[in-house]
Structure formats: structure tokens, C-alpha cells
Write a sequence for this structure.
């Protein structure tokens, strides 16, 4: 559209008696703009202090070799980033984390959806069940991990005797790689399925009733109704819930710290735990900062791609 | 007797009574949980005479109860006696190092008094104040054994105020070892007599025979060995206990972790690898979950009567000897097992010994120090001296959860444990003889007290954990550790690490 024509169009839709606003604001308007910035300043300062400063400081630290024997912010260039490139333990932890977080979030979604569907309908003790399902989420992760560690304890915990009574046999929950990984998954799923449940139940309760009435009139059964009405209409909220949980799951730390300390071997070591070891235990502050920032970038990219894929899969297809 | 005389007598009597009562009150410190005050520069009476009103002492220590509880207890007492305000910050173990180090590096005088693991001296030494000569001369400090005085020192200066003594030793169920039925069973299965393990091969054999059987007739299965195997939970100390006799040749000086001359890591030499092979093999005789036991699990397993043998610090032994313990007076202590084949890194061969090479591992130990930047060094050293005075120490030694273990000559008297703690004479005798034996052992190993010790030990624990889980063979795992150690040394600077490590080697080779 030519600029002159666009301008005339703007003139044409302006109510009569009003003149075209000048390109520069008049003096009182300038003062008003200034005042606006003054009002915004406290919020901006808080934003800079709370979000930007730590981020900028972390970036600066990642270009130093600050550790126990080189204190302070020297200039190490990209040495820390070059070092992490060859750090196989870091990349293994990243792969392990991806597997852990994607699998647990998927299971949490399925279970959370099932539970939400269960209490969405008019069933006995619906209110009680809604509160009960939220209890795991309300407990402190570290405390619950300690309790789960006792449950999984192979000599003293109650789980193995129960499994033996059921004829399944005692399992090496924390001393074998696959079992320990499964143990971490179980705790994560137990703790965070209620979060999925809460969001998905809220979504279900907000759905309009007309499509369900129409489906019933058309003679659709429960499965058909779920596949063609409920699930498509829950697409947007499902994507939101999955993404929020994926972001949280990508930071898993407490459960690993308490339950397995990353072991046996490195079987359950996640990125967050590895960064904790490097930063807090080994006091390699510069290297831990580089690890953290790299992890942040990888996660931001990965979660963006996941979000786009999920939107395409669950939202756009539903609309189509 | 006239009225005046009677009144005078009454007055004198009341004054005398008042004085006597006052004196008795001033000298009676039993309200603080001690048996009796012991006169000296840091006694209750001496500290009571000081006035620190209006001054504040900041202390950082471990979480309650281990060390954290006595720190807080003696801080309250110090506050009451001197009028000072004493703030105690309790920090979980995993955060303690960085909570101390960051203020040091950033020049903040955040804490006056610090309680921490003695092996961190290699990192903390530039920031610590030397213990003044007057405090080094107090009777309690004079009684500290040579080994623990050595741990407190750095480059000829005493930087740490000794208030604990730690070491690894073997603990075993004496009732099982002396049981004729168990002796017969062992003879039948192995063809030899059941004796307290003299080598780690013996240890593994005894453990394997007595595992997964109910040898205490309580209806639950028992197991052979409980060891600290959980990565990042002081497992490295357990591993070093197992490795030391194979890798620390009594006639080869100049380093156990590194060759001091070249600063080449020795962690992947045959002695270390063999020790790791035996550590991995022992997993078969551990209780369910024993391959991921932290220190707490190990204490509970042996102290609770589940396992026949264990080795680590005093805690499991003290737990077993508590008054309500089902195995009280059924345990005994001994030196760590040794090795008859010892790797000689100078000749590159295994040397054979008729008598096992026993290596005493003096590991960890809580310690305390005063920050060099502290503006309250006088008060801080008074607090530490008070903390570790004779009366407090004897009371603290009797409370297992405090984590304070023997470190003075007087602490090795078996009569103390018999009289004060009610131990059987035989138990007290093996306990004190073992501790004394470690202290005077000709072949000792100390922790790697160099800058970056956390990184070195973290790398070691990760490598050992890979071998334990079967991810790598012992040789592969330790080759990986050696490569990481080489990289760490290169990063810090070989000369810098060597200078620090020379302090450790000096202790070992004295």
C-alpha cells in the first residue's frame, strides 16, 4: 500500500473536527511521557535487579575461571565453554535428563487426564478425591524424597516385603541402574501428576456443554466423545500443562540428590545435579556458570521446538 | 552470752553462710552438664571471669546434631558466662564448603569461628588465623596426640584448633567370631580358622561366608559387610581404606595419591586397581541396598546388628555400644585389614610380606578455626578453647550424636569408657588399643589436603561408582580418574599442588 494512500485513509476515518496528530508531541505531552517513564522506573529497576542482573552476572562469571584456587572474575575467554564441549559426563546427563523428563511428563499427562476425567463426572466422594489427589503436590519435594528413599530402602523399606508378599520378589531399587532410574521416575510421577490433574480438571470444568450434548444426540459413545470432542477441545490447555511441567521437569534436582545422589555409577545423574556437584561441591564457579548457561540455551531451544510441535499436533489439528 | 554477742555471732554466721553459698554457686558449673570443671586457661571459671558484653561472635558450623549440636550448646554456655552475643549458623554438609569459601574469597568477614572438615585446610589455609601461642600451650592442647596436632598444622603454623579426632578402623561382631558353631561353620566352608580379618581378602572371605544367613537367631537374615558405597557420601574414604595397604608400600616414600616429584597421579597403579577389584567383589556380601549405602545406612546396618563387619568412623561402633543397643558389648574394634602383596611403584613389582602391611587411615575429622579477617579473634579463640576444654570434651565424648571422637592421650584410657559409659572391659580395651594403634602406626595415610580436594575426591568417587555399577572395569574407571586428576593438576598448577601435597607427605613419611 503506497504511503500517501495509507495516510489519506487515516485522514478519512478520523472524526471530523480532529486534526492529524503531529509527529512530535507537544510540550505538555512530552512531560507526560516523562512522567510515564518515572512511574515505570521502579518496576524496571526491580526487573533488572531480579532477572537481568543475575543473568548478566552469570554470563560474566562463565567467562572467568573462578574456582577454589582462582578466586574472582578474571578473564578466561571461552575456556569454560571449550571445556564443557569435551565433558562427556555433562552430555550424558543431558541425554538422561531428556529421557527422564519427557517420559515422566508424558505419564503424568496420561494419569492426570485420567484422574481429572474421573472426578469431572458426578461420582461419589468427588470433592474428597479432588483434595486427595492434590496432596502429593503440596508436600515438600526434599521431604518426600527422604520418605521415598525409606520406602525404596532394600533392607528396611516396606516396598520389598510387599512385593515379596505379592510374589513379585524384592527389587534392587537403588542399587541397580535401571531400577534406580525407575525409582526416580516413580517419585517424580507421584509428586507431579496432581499438578497435571489440577490444570486438566480446570480445563475440563471450563468446557462448554453444547458439543457434548450434540455428541450425545448424534449417538456418540464415551470413547468417541472423548476422541472427537473432549480431547480436541482440551488441546490448548494440554499444551500449556505439558510445557509447564516440562520446564519444571528439566530442572529435576531434589529427588536425585536425596534418592540416589546420581548413582549407581552415574545412572541417575541429571544436568542440574551435575551442575550442583561442579558448582557447590567442587567449587568450580566459572565452569558451573558455563554449564548452566549452555543448559539454559539448550532447554530454551528444545522447549520452543516441543511447544511448536505440540501446538501443531494438538491445537491446530483440533481446529482443523 | 549477752544480746550483742549473740547478734554478732548471728551476723558472722550469716556472712559466712552467704560467702560459702556464693562461692559454691560460682564454682559449681555442673548445671552445664559437666561432671566437674577442670582448672585452666579455658575452664568454666576462667571464661566466667571474662566480660564480652556488647560484642558479637559469629559462628558457622554443620547442621545439628553432628558438631552442630555441641557448637550451639557451648555457644549458649559461652554467651551466659561472658555476656557476649553468639550467633550460630547451621549449614547442611553439602553447602558448608561454599558457605565458608565464598565470604573468604570476596573479602567478607562473615564468620569469626568456623567448623568444617579438616581435609579442607588445603583450600582454607590462606584465610585462617594462626592459633596464638598461649592457646597452643594450654594443658588440653598439650594432650592432643602428635597425629592430630599434625593435622592442625600447615607450613609450620597451627591454623586449626583441634576439637575432634577421626580415623577409619574395623568393627566386628565379637560374639559371632567367638561362637564355636560359627567357627566350625567357617572351618567347614573355607578350611581355615575364623579369625579377625588380617587382609582385605580375608575380610571378603569372612563376609561372604556369613552373608544372607541368620547368625544371630532373630529371624531376619544377616549379612557380611556394611560399607559406605554411595557416591558423594564420603564413599571415597571407604575406598581409600581398602586401597591403602595395597598401594602404600611401607618402604616407598614420597606420596600415596601422587608421586610428589612428578605429580603424576598414582590412582590407576596396580595397588589401587586391586583394591577397587576387592571393593567391587565385596558387594556380593552386602545387605540388600548395600551398594548404595550412605554413612547413615552403614551406621544403622552395623550398629543395628544387621551386619557382621564394617569399617569407617566411630559412629557405627558408638551406635552399637549405646545403652539401648541389642548388640551392646557384643562388638569389638581392630585395625583396618592389611595386604600381604603390596605394589612397589619404585620397582614396578608386587612385594610379598609375611605380616600384612597395615595402613592406618587418618581421615577427615571435624576441626575448627578462626578467620584471619575476624575482628574478634581474642573472643573467637576463647570460645574454641572453651569448647574444647577438658570438662566439655569429656562430656561431649559420651554423646555419640555429637560426633566428637578421641584425640587426646587421656581419651585412650579404657577406664574412662568402663567407668563413665559402662562398656565391658574387653570392648573398651579393643577400642582404645585400636585408636592408639592408629595414632602410633608406622604406616599412615592422610587425606589429600590440597587446593581443590573436593574436585579430586568427587572425580575419584565418580570413577569408583562406575566400577561398582559395572559401567566400567576397575582399571578403566581408575584410568579415567587419573586422566581427570592430571587435568585438574594442570589447571591448578603442578607446583601449587605439589607445595600443598608436600605437607601431607611430610605427615605420612615422618
Amino acid at each position: 500500500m503506497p504511503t500517501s494512500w495509507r495516510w489519506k485513509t487515516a485522514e478519512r476515518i478520523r472524526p471530523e473536527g480532529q486534526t492529524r496528530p503531529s509527529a512530535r508531541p507537544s510540550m505538555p505531552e512530552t512531560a507526560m511521557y516523562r512522567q510515564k517513564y518515572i512511574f515505570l522506573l521502579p518496576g524496571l529497576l526491580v526487573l533488572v535487579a531480579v532477572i537481568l542482573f543475575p543473568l548478566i552476572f552469570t554470563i560474566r562469571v562463565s567467562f572467568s575461571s573462578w574456582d577454589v584456587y582462582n578466586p574472582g572474575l578474571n578473564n578466561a575467554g571461552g575456556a569454560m565453554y571449550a571445556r564443557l564441549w569435551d565433558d562427556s559426563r555433562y552430555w550424558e546427563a543431558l541425554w538422561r535428563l531428556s529421557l527422564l523428563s519427557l517420559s515422566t511428563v508424558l505419564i503424568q499427562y496420561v494419569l492426570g487426564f485420567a484422574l481429572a476425567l474421573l472426578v469431572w463426572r458426578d461420582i461419589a466422594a468427588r470433592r474428597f478425591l479432588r483434595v486427595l489427589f492434590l496432596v502429593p503436590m503440596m508436600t515438600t519435594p526434599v521431604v518426600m524424597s527422604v520418605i521415598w528413599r525409606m520406602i525404596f530402602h532394600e533392607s528396611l523399606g516396606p516396598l520389598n516385603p510387599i512385593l515379596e508378599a505379592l510374589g513379585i520378589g524384592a527389587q534392587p531399587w537403588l542399587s541397580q541402574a535401571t531400577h534406580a532410574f525407575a525409582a526416580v521416575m516413580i517419585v517424580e510421577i507421584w509428586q507431579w501428576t496432581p499438578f497435571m490433574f489440577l490444570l486438566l480438571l480446570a480445563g475440563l470444568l471450563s468446557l462448554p456443554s453444547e458439543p457434548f450434548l450434540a455428541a450425545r444426540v448424534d449417538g456418540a459413545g464415551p470413547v468417541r466423545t472423548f476422541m472427537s470432542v473432549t480431547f480436541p477441545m482440551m488441546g490448548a490447555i494440554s499444551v500449556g500443562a505439558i510445557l509447564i511441567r516440562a520446564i519444571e521437569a528439566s530442572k529435576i534436582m531434589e529427588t536425585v540428590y536425596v534418592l540416589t545422589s546420581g548413582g549407581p555409577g552415574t545412572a541417575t545423574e541429571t544436568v542440574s545435579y551435575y551442575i550442583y556437584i561442579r558448582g557447590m561441591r567442587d567449587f568450580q564457579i566459572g565452569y558451573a556458570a558455563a554449564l548452566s548457561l549452555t543448559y539454559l540455551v539448550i532447554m530454551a531451544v528444545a522447549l520452543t521446538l516441543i511447544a511448536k510441535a505440540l501446538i501443531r499436533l494438538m491445537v491446530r489439528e483440533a481446529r482443523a | 552470752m549477752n544480746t550483742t554477742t549473740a547478734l554478732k555471732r548471728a551476723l558472722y554466721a550469716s556472712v559466712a553462710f552467704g560467702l560459702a553459698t556464693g562461692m559454691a554457686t560460682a564454682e559449681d558449673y555442673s548445671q552445664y552438664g559437666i561432671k566437674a570443671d577442670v582448672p585452666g586457661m579455658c575452664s568454666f571459671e576462667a571464661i566466667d571471669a571474662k566480660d564480652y558484653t556488647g560484642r558479637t561472635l559469629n559462628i558457622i558450623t554443620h547442621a545439628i546434631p553432628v558438631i552442630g549440636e555441641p557448637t550451639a550448646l557451648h555457644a549458649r554456655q559461652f554467651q551466659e558466662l561472658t555476656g557476649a552475643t553468639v550467633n550460630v549458623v547451621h549449614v547442611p554438609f553439602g553447602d558448608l564448603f561454599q558457605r565458608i569459601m565464598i565470604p573468604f574469597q570476596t573479602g567478607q568477614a562473615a564468620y569469626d569461628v568456623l567448623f568444617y572438615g579438616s581435609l579442607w585446610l588445603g583450600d582454607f589455609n590462606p584465610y585462617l588465623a594462626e592459633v596464638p601461642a598461649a592457646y597452643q600451650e594450654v594443658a588440653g592442647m598439650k594432650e592432643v596426640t602428635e597425629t592430630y596436632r599434625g593435622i592442625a598444622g600447615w607450613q609450620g603454623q597451627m591454623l586449626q584448633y583441634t576439637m575432634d579426632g577421626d580415623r577409619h578402623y574395623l568393627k566386628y561382631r565379637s560374639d559371632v567370631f567367638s561362637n564355636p558353631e560359627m567357627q566350625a561353620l567357617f572351618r567347614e566352608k573355607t578350611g581355615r580358622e575364623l579369625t579377625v580379618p588380617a587382609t582385605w581378602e580375608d575380610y571378603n572371605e569372612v563376609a561372604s561366608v556369613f552373608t544372607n544367613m541368620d547368625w544371630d537367631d532373630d529371624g531376619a537374615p544377616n549379612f557380611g559387610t556394611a560399607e559406605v558405597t554411595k557416591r558423594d557420601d564420603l564413599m571415597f574414604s571407604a575406598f581409600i581404606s581398602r586401597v591403602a595397604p595395597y598401594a602404600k608400600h611401607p618402604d616407598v616414600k614420597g606420596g600415596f595419591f601422587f608421586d610428589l616429584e612428578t605429580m603424576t597421579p598414582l590412582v590407576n597403579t596396580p595397588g589401587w586397581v586391586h583394591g577397587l577389584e576387592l571393593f567391587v567383589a565385596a558387594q556380593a556380601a552386602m545387605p540388600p541396598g548395600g551398594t548404595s549405602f550412605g554413612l547413615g545406612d552403614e551406621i544403622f546396618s552395623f550398629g543395628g546388628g544387621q551386619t557382621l563387619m564394617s569399617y569407617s568412623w566411630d559412629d557405627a561402633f558408638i551406635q552399637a555400644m549405646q545403652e539401648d543397643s541389642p548388640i551392646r558389648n557384643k562388638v569389638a574394634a581392630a585395625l583396618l585389614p592389611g595386604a600381604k602383596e603390596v605394589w612397589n611403584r619404585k620397582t614396578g613389582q608386587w612385594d610379598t610380606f609375611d605380616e600384612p602391611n597395615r595402613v592406618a587411615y587418618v581421615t577427615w575429622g571435624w576441626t575448627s578455626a578462626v578467620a584471619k579477617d575476624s575482628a574478634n579473634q581474642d573472643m573467637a579463640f576463647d570460645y574454641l578453647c572453651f569448647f574444647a576444654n577438658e570438662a566439655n570434651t569429656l562430656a561431649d565424648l559420651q554423646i555419640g550424636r555429637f560426633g566428637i571422637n578421641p584425640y587426646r592421650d587421656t581419651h585412650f584410657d579404657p577406664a574412662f569408657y568402663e567407668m563413665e559409659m559402662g562398656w565391658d572391659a574387653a570392648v573398651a580395651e579393643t577400642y582404645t588399643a585400636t585408636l592408639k594403634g592408629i595414632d602410633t602406626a608406622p604406616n599412615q595415610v592422610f587425606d589429600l589436603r590440597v587446593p581443590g580436594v573436593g574436585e579430586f575426591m568427587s572425580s575419584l568417587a565418580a570413577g569408583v561408582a562406575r566400577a561398582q555399577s559395572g559401567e566400567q572395569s576397575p582399571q578403566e574407571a581408575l584410568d579415567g580418574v587419573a586422566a581427570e586428576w592430571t587435568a585438574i593438576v594442570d589447571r591448578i598448577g603442578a607446583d601449587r599442588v605439589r607445595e600443598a601435597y608436600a605437607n601431607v607427605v611430610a605427615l605420612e613419611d615422618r
Remarks:
- The domain at 88-319 of chain A is CATH 1.10.3720.10 (MetI-like fold).
